[in-house]
Each structure stands twice: as C-alpha cells, then as structure tokens.
C-alpha cells in the first residue's frame, strides 16, 4: 500500500478510496495506515441495492 501511495504522490496525485462500510477489516486497516476518513455516503449500486461506503484519503 505504501508503494502505491508513494507512486501516486510522486505523480502529483492524492489517493482516495471507498470502502464498503460493512467491511470492518478494511476500515481498521486503512485507519491503522493513517488514512483519513473524509465522509460516509450511501451509493446506489443497482436499482435495488444501496450500499453505505466510507471515503478515505491517504496520509499526506
């Protein structure tokens, strides 16, 4: 993960990602790696499926 973040930052980008809120293992991992929670939203993935996701930004 650190290598991907470094590569993105060297390219002038700031990585962000969405994590399905029910995936608590991923949420714990990104928080442990220093990613910042930007917000939580509901996304419409299909006409019958709404999913809550957390949006994270990589540490600066």
Task: Describe what you observe in this structure.
With 60 residues, the protein is an alpha+beta fold. The chain is 30% helix and 42% strand. It has helices at 2-10, 24-32, and strands at 16-20, 36-46, 49-57. The protein has a three-stranded antiparallel β-sheet, with helices on one face. The model has no long low-confidence stretch (mean pLDDT 96).
Whole-number mean pLDDT: 96
Spatial strand arrangement across the major sheet: 1-3-2
Principal-axis shape equals: elongated
Distance N to C terminus:
14 Å
Order of helices and strands: HEHEE
Strand segment count: 3
Number of domains: 1
Helix segment count? 2
Protein name: N-acetyltransferase domain-containing protein
Organism: Micromonospora polyrhachis
Key words describing this protein structure:
single chain, 60 residues, alpha+beta, 3-stranded antiparallel sheet, 2 helices
């Amino acid at each position: 993960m650190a290598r991907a973040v470094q590569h993105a930052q060297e390219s002038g980008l700031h990585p962000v990602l969405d994590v399905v809120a029910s995936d608590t293992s991923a949420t714990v991992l990104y928080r442990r790696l220093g990613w910042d929670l930007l917000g939580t939203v509901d996304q419409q993935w299909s006409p019958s499926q709404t999913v809550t996701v957390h949006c994270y930004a990589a540490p600066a």
